[in-house]
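Allow me, if you will, to draw on your knowledge of protein folds for a short while. I have a record of one protein: its chain in single-letter code and its fold written as discrete structure tokens. I remain grateful for any guidance, and I place the record below:
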Amino acid sequence: MNGWLIYRKEDAEKNKTFIDWLQTEAEALGIELELVIYHELTYGIQDRRLFIDWKGQDYPDFVMMRAIDPLLSQQFELLGIRVYNDSRVATIANDKAQTHQLFASYGIPMVDTYFIKKAELMEYSFCFPIIVKAVNGRSGNQVHMLDSLADLPPLTSERYIVQSLAIPGKDLRVFAMGGKVIGSVLRESDSDFRANYTLGGKATLYPLSSSEQELVDKIISILPADFIGIDFVFDKQGGLLFNEIEDIVGSRTLTSLTDINIAKLYLEHILKSAR
């Protein structure tokens, strides 16, 4: 099998260790996995047909999409090429408003969440403190905790969600692959309301209770995906509140705490599901 591993250039440089790991495991499994830099791709319509071009190469058997572009993912799918994760997951998971809208419609517990355009934000009255998030933010970026709108920094996106504050500095990431949980990590920070590992939070393994497992299974059934992170915050009673889906999920926390071979597991999942 031949696959394309698609990254934006700056992300490929930051994730070189993971890319090398994936390619090493791919070779061991008899898979040719080529790193494709996103900006080197061209796609659209030529002679009334959909096309994707990368250095004139033949199309791959599958694509590991590690660059956010749901339209490109859909283009591959329309050409009959399997994409991991697929375009529906990419569309919903990379828009926090769409994510909350979808899961709230199934009764998944979450904090109060408002969908607001940048131009309208100053017109609202809120019960502070609040969390303001750009709908397309990732890894804790473009997330602000405010005690008043006077504290609002310059906004660079057009659409935001505004949420009431859960327990700050503490969240749970559940890693799911092929519809099954492969690990859960509690992330905590003493210095930031965000508990992201990349922002200095500490991480420990977290065993899910039976009721927490049921909640995770329900979320997985609503948005089937190949490899995602499901993030939760906690209410005052310690219950889980859905926070977001991470489409291009990083696995540093899980691999630092366990001997789980994420790269091999993901490629074995691809081999199984692509047949």
The chain has three domains: 2-84, 113-164, 167-259.
